[in-house]
Amino acid sequence: MNYSKTRADLSVALCDLVTEFARRDVWSSQQAAHCIPGSDRLNTGFATKVHAGREDSGGGWAPRKLIGAPAWPLVAGTVARENDAVTFPTQASRSTFGIRQNLLRPDDSERAHNVTYIELFFDLIFIFALTQLSRYLFDNQSLTGALESTVLVLAFWWIWIYTTWATNWLDPVRLPVRGAIIVLSLIGLVLSTSIYESFGDRGVVFAITYVSLQLGRTVFMLAAVARHDRDLFRTHLRILVWLSVAGIFWILGGFLAIEWRLPFWALALAIEYLSAGFGFRVPGLGRAAADDWDISGPHIAERGALFVIVALGESFLVTGFAFVEQDISVEGVLGLLVAFVAAVAMWWLYFDHGERVGSKAIASSSTPGRIARLAYTYVHAIIIAGIVLSSVADKEMLKHPDTRVHLATAVTLVGGPVLYLVGVVLFRWVVARALPIPHVAGGGVLLVLFGLAFLLPPLAVAALTTTVLIGVAGWETIRRVRSGTDEPDAG
Asked: What is the pLDDT of residues 17-30, one digit of tens each?
């Protein structure tokens, strides 16, 4: 018998087992990296979960010995022998901080990917928030108002996407997670009520509630994963550092004079977005490799699609309220019809083909974290901004259907559809490296239409932009049908 080969094969098998333990977070990936197949000894500390002999009921693991097993070193590079027995380091020995109950989503269950009702409950807060954002932008159609509205939209998007990442890792079925989401919803409701006066008398309220929501959720994540996922714990420790730094500028901006609020809050938002883009790099803690994060791609994709629906629903609210506040007229009825058709076209452009492409790409990707970070964290912000701006355009069209179009009005009427198409094009490029020609052509037509907008009334401009969106949606659908599809859900 070739004992050397047998020993090498056994070493490789043990390394595979060690790697599997690391994947399931029984053992840290840093420890598993010390496994050297084919060497005289396995240069690592072997570990396993213990189901029999738990010393507490909260998820901590007790040490256990395997009699008759070969002796392996407990610490990389050292040998520990005790009557041919191995003492296994415990999961609980890694951290004494955190919630003992494992709140992470189970890998071997439907709950690994499902969107839960409590997540949809959290989304309800954002319907109100988006209506307030549209109201603020409608009443502040100026360069300053546009910049302020941009800060507000991006701030609320950041809250939502961070919470979506949290519920991608944590199981909302667990009572502590469900309770945390309810608390976040309450804070979000208070935050939403301060949107309209955020650059006025309620700046302090907005800043404090925003920072409280961001930091509170991150601290809960730290407590939830401290005993169960060391990599996630370190990632959220880095996130906490950067959110704390940004929080200083949020709160300072709330207390300072109003003219200083916009630059301070813009700086705070830049810190949050840029730190995420660079992996939350912190001296001494390194950076988070989001591309390697173990996430549920289908969950992220479905959450992103559902928020597009939420934003479109908000546009119906804004349009409906604007319509019922005025006397019934031919212009009003036509404006309502144009707004509805525009929303249908936006829905079609995202859900007829693009949403399925994104879902398939992230579900089959070997690096779902990369797609989730680029396509669903950053690019979707552009798509949502386009819908919000379009809802403001709908309100402008209904309120002033036949007045002269000024620069701010033209930006609103044409800018919303342009932003939306740009967002969808970028989304398709990130998930499938495809450049949808109809969308690019439609964007070009809208830019030409911007130059003509000053010669037409708002209702006519809105009708033309809607026609462009319909044309883009129809063009892509015809191309897809003619080329054939193997998607059973496609029309």
From this structure: 545 545 544 444 44
